[in-house]
Every structure is written in structure tokens, then in C-alpha cells.
Amino acid sequence: MGVLITVIVIAAVVVIIVGFLWATYNGLVSARIRVREAWAGIDVQLKRRSSLIPNLVETVKGYAAHERETLDAVTRARSGLDTALRGGSAGAVAQADNMLTQTLRSLFAVSEAYPDLKANQNFLELQRELTDTEDKIAYSRQFYNANVSNYNTKIAVFPNVLIANMFGFHPAEFYEAEAAAREDVRVSFGTGASPA
């Protein structure tokens, strides 16, 4: 009878340990998938903004062709972001995104000197789309960083850290804006407001 109780206790302990490992591992995998899914949201919005840039540059060129240096800087920054999106880490993408944000600010500052440009329907539509996209990028960044925080916490707390180390779970990188780029790009030209 004593052997049977011992076997039952050992079997119960094994079931509890296996259940704990299973639940913890699946929780870590789910958290990692949420991080990847949130990253995909940022990726979509950055690509959407990137696809608007050529039209914006062409529209501005029609009115401010002699602002070539600014237009070239925007084009280079867009290309840098596209390259980072194809294979960079969150830090590399954030850096490229920050560069594009800064060059867009320069472009928007230049556009203030051209009243005809500010009244152009195509420019106004691009302005609306960029504003909408910037809002979506900000939301996507917050959503991603919240998921990264949750995931990084899960893999760092005990006893999850043991399982995370055993199965190769590594901390995810936050998507951080540089101090100069922490404010959203302002694209409201019709009101006469200056860019941020």
C-alpha cells in the first residue's frame, strides 16, 4: 500500500511539473507571437507611409524644384527605411524611421514658403493621408512596445527565466524614437501652423 501511495505521489508531481512546463512554454510562445504580430503592424504602417513619399516629393517638386537638397534627403531617408524594414532589427528600423521623420519635418518647413503648394489638392490629400498614417504608426509603436514589455517581463521572472533560457527565448528590442523625433510630425499646412 505504501508503494502505491509513493507511485501516485511521484506521478502527481511529474504531472504537475510537466503541466507547469507546458503552460509556461506555451505562454512564452504566445507572448513572442504577439510581439511579432505587433511588429507586423508597425511594418505595415511604415511601408504605407513610405509609399506616400514619392507622391509627396513629386508634388513638392512641381512647386519647389530648387529645394533639391531637401527632396533628395527625403528620398534617401525613405530608401534607408525601406532597406531597414527588409532585414533590420527594431533598433535599425527605428533609427531609419527617425531619420525619415526628421527629413519630412524639413520638407514640411520648406513647403511653408510656397502658398500655391499648400493649396494644391494632391498635396492636401497627401497631408491627410500622412497625418492618418502618423497616428497609426504612433499607435502601432505603443502596441508593439506594450507587447515587448509583457514578453520581456515573462522571460525575466522566476521561474519562467529557467524555461526561457532552456528553450532560447531572448528579450525583444523596444521600438524607440530618438529624443528629437519623439513628437509626431505635424502636417497641418492649411492652418498656417509651423511644423513641430
Description:
The protein is an all-alpha fold and 196 residues long. It has one domain: LemA-like domain (de novo design (two linked rop proteins), Up-down Bundle), CATH 1.20.1440. The protein has six helices and no strands. The protein has helices at 2-63, 68-87, 90-111, 115-119, 121-156, 160-166. α1 packs antiparallel against α2 (68-87), α1 runs antiparallel to α5 and α2 (68-87) runs antiparallel to α3 (90-111). The chain is rod-shaped, with a radius of gyration of 25 Å. Residues 187-196 have low confidence and may be disordered.
Order of helices and strands: HHHHHH
Strand content: under 5%
Number of helices: 6
Helix content: over 70%
Low-confidence stretches: 187-196
Keyword list:
de novo design (two linked rop proteins), mainly alpha, 6 helices, 78% helix, disordered C terminus, rod-shaped, 196 residues
Annotate the secondary structure layout.
Layout: H1 2-63, H2 68-87, H3 90-111, H4 115-119, H5 121-156, H6 160-166
Helix pairs in contact: 1-2, 1-5, 2-3
What is the compact description of this entry?
This protein has 6 helices and no strands.
